[in-house]
Write a structure and sequence with these properties.
With 352 residues, the protein is α/β, with parallel strands linked by helices. 28% of the residues lie in helices and 14% in strands.
Length: 352
């Protein structure tokens, strides 16, 4: 069973409602928001993203993940509930979506292969907009970074960090604090950042949102050029490690975090469906418990599961806050009535 991926599309209807990439039409701007490892658990009719085991229980202090900005966006958007990820791994699914081709065509099934090397010279979504007169601006994680998006490839000469830079973008930005100073060597799977530390070392997604807000301001100054933009914002959280501000962790008291109803796989599960959680077990705190990954017959201690769930929820709320800042900047700009907003997650995440 493939994991669902959430896509929210807000199409702003202006005086001219025709949306087209080519010239000769009222060409909408595009704000393209990609979020890493975001579980599809959105409840538009309830209080936000419903955390597993963190149900809608009155008086528990844990009524779902706190996502006011995603709630607001979803409330005025078209939501696709039947989207399915092609492969629940970052690079294969991102490559699939960004090229509109399945992994058996792109030939990307891992985190190192570059589709232009192994599959074909396919046109990507940002590349298509760029070729049709848009300013193509990227930041954060859109493609999987490194060799998976062209670093060291003869098919991408200007791709020192990957990102399919030569083909897809006019400009690109990575947060300076992407390797967060407090957790430089994959020490722990989660970490609470207090206010003093955050002021000294802004979190990567905070830096990305800062840059996005600044970019929208700069685009506003240049709006008289008449050139539309494709602006891609790639948030890093809630990907591991779950590093989030203290006030976001405070939203989810550990005593209110519930365990999954079952921590064992279903009967007759095919072996190919099991993940040994190698990424999770690479962190020092988890490695002390399970150093060689998790087999189907092994589980993490209950307290560890609660801590990881809490860290994931806090990371989602941090992501929501930063996305909200970007959306607010757009709403305050002259582009508010001429921009299509797309929000999507690359694949889900196993939390139990």
């Amino acid at each position: 069973v493939m994991l669902e991926v959430l896509i929210v599309v807000l199409v702003v209807i202006g005086p001219t409602t025709t949306l087209a990439v080519g010239g000769g039409f009222d060409r909408k701007n595009v704000l393209f928001i990609a979020i890493d490892d975001f579980r599809y658990q959105y409840n538009v009719d309830g209080p936000g993203v419903v955390g597993p085991g963190c149900g809608l229980k009155e008086g528990t202090g844990c009524t779902g993940m706190v996502t006011p900005n995603l709630n607001k966006l979803a409330g005025k958007s078209l939501i696709f509930h039947k989207n399915y990820v092609q492969q629940a791994v970052c690079s294969p699914t991102r490559t699939s979506l960004l090229t509109s081709r399945r992994p058996d065509v792109t030939r990307v099934w891992d985190l190192v292969s570059y589709f232009r090397d192994v599959g074909g010279n396919f046109t990507t979504i940002p590349q298509l907009f760029r070729q049709n007169g848009y300013s193509s601006i990227g930041m954060g994680k859109i493609f999987h970074p490194g060799t998976a998006s062209g670093a060291n490839s003869s098919h991408c000469y200007n791709c020192s960090e990957g990102d399919d830079m030569e083909w897809s973008w006019d400009s690109y930005y990575h947060a300076p604090n992407l390797d967060y100073p407090i957790n430089p060597q994959h020490t722990n799977s989660w970490f609470i950042v207090n206010k003093t530390m955050e002021e000294k070392y802004p979190l990567p997604d905070t830096q990305l949102a800062d840059h996005a807000v600044e970019t929208i301001a700069n685009l506003t100054k240049q709006k008289n050029t008449g050139k539309p933009f494709f602006l891609a914002y790639g948030g890093h959280r809630p990907h591991l490690p779950f590093i989030a501000p203290e006030d976001k962790y405070d939203l989810y008291p550990i005593e209110n975090i519930q365990l999954p109803t079952s921590q064992v796989p279903p009967l007759y599960m095919p072996n190919v469906a099991w993940s040994s959680s190698d990424e999770l077990t690479s962190y020092t705190d988890i490695k002390k418990i399970h150093s060689n990954g998790l087999s189907p017959n092994e589980t993490l201690p209950k307290q560890t599961v609660k801590e990881l769930r809490r860290g994931y929820y806090a990371s989602v709320s941090h992501m929501d806050e930063q996305v909200g800042r970007v959306l607010s900047a757009l709403e305050s700009s002259p582009f508010v009535n001429n921009t299509v907003i797309i929000f999507w997650g690359d694949h889900g995440w196993q939390l139990g």
